[in-house]
Structures are given as structure tokens and as C-alpha cells.
Write a structure and sequence with these properties.
This protein is mainly alpha-helical and 126 residues long. The chain contains 4 helices and 2 strands. It folds into 2 domains: 74 residues, no CATH class; 36 residues, no CATH class. Helices cover 56% and strands 3% of the residues. A two-stranded antiparallel sheet has the order 1-2. Strand 1 and strand 2 form a beta hairpin. The radius of gyration is 26 Å and the shape is rod-shaped. The N and C termini lie far apart (86 Å). Keywords: Coiled coil. This is RING-type domain-containing protein.
């Protein structure tokens, strides 16, 4: 009975190690696997060197994603988020055709200050 449990535990450990190794290898190849929660929970079983390597690869991938997000956001209207085509004179980004009728940039400090003042309740006179 004890031998069967030990054999089962060894087989489970081998399956888990194979899953982690497969995920690690796919990351090394530059693939973007969708690791499920179970695989992520097994990270604590990897040696520190492997986890650090995985961390570096994920940071590199995240940096690439952030660059794409930034570029795509710079192509969007700063007011509504739709595809922008007209540059704002202040240089904060683009506006779409619909929002271009407004000459105010929502990113400009003056406009933000006006919005804050409009949102604050009036101060009582003493």
C-alpha cells in the first residue's frame, strides 16, 4: 500500500514537472502560452534560477505589450477613445472628427483645473 502511494506521488510530481518544463520551454521559444492557474501555482517547485529566468522573460514580454498599448493609445482620440485623425495644437494627442469641434484639450492642465473647480461644491460664505 505504501509503495503504491509513493509511486502515485512520484507520477504526480513527474506530471507536474513536465507541465512546468513545457511552459518554461514555450516561454523560452518566445511563444505566448496561456498558463492556467494550476501551472502558475506550481512555480514554487521550480528552482530559483528557472523562476528568475521566467521573470526576466515575462518582464520583457510585458515591456513589449506596454509599448504597443502606448502606440495604440497615441492613435486614439484623447476625448472619447475612438480612432483619432486630427492633432491637437497643444500636442497632447489626437482627436476624432466628432470631438474636433471642441477646441479644449482634456489633457491640458488649464482644462483639468476648470473641471476640478466645477466638481467642487461652492464654499459657504462666512
Amino acid at each position: 500500500m505504501e509503495a503504491e502511494r509513493a509511486k502515485q506521488a512520484e507520477e504526480d510530481a513527474q506530471r507536474q514537472a513536465a507541465l512546468l518544463q513545457e511552459a518554461l520551454e514555450s516561454l523560452r521559444r518566445g511563444e505566448n502560452p496561456h498558463l492556467d492557474v494550476h501551472q502558475l501555482q506550481l512555480l514554487h517547485r521550480l528552482p530559483l534560477e528557472s523562476v528568475l529566468s521566467l521573470q526576466a522573460q515575462l518582464c520583457s514580454c510585458l515591456h513589449a505589450v506596454e509599448q504597443v498599448v502606448y502606440r495604440k493609445q497615441r492613435q486614439c482620440c484623447v476625448t472619447c477613445g475612438e480612432q483619432g485623425s486630427l492633432s491637437l495644437p497643444c500636442g497632447h494627442g489626437l482627436q476624432c472628427e466628432s470631438c474636433s469641434s471642441s477646441t479644449e484639450c482634456p489633457m491640458c492642465p488649464e482644462h483639468k483645473q476648470e473641471q476640478k473647480q466645477q466638481q467642487q461644491p461652492p464654499q459657504p460664505l462666512s
